[in-house]
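User: I'm writing a short report section on ligand binding and want a predicted complex to refer to. Could you take this sequence and guanosine-5'-monophosphate and write out the structure as tokens? A short remark afterwards would be nice.
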Amino acid sequence: MAEDCIFCKIIKGDIPSTKVYEDDKMIAINDVAPAAPVHVLLMPKDHTANITTADPELVAYMLGKVKMIAEKTGIAEKGFRVVINTGDEGGQTVKHLHIHVIGGKALGWPPC
Ligand code: 5GP
Ligand code: ZN
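Assistant: Sure. The structure tokens for the complex follow:
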């Protein structure tokens, strides 16, 4: 748990969230400001800043859950986007590693 980390507070239960999935290593929650009809955030329970600080096996574990999340939220068939914003120039606003799974409509590209 990192002080002043909003996602650590969500994981601890101090801030409410809508959980899509949970296990011993991670949770998946609905984004509070969804960019599309489906916008889920996957995050590890143990605080780590981003993909450069995380154990690669943990990142692989979480990516391995994306298919299940996409199927559970009904976006697997039509397609969706997986995003890991990293650091300031990568647009990461919450410095607790998270994977965005976004879908439910046709998405534009590039995002910048
Ligand atoms: P980032 O820009 O760091 O890649 O993404 C952070 C995401 O966290 C944003 O999409 C933002 O809407 C979401 N977010 C920020 N605060 C909260 C919160 O308190 N609850 C939930 N569910 N999502 C949040
Ligand atoms: Zn945290």
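A remark for your report: The mean pLDDT is 97. Residues 6, 10, 15, 17, 29, 31-33, 41, 85, 91-94 surround guanosine-5'-monophosphate (ligand 1) (CB under 6 Å).
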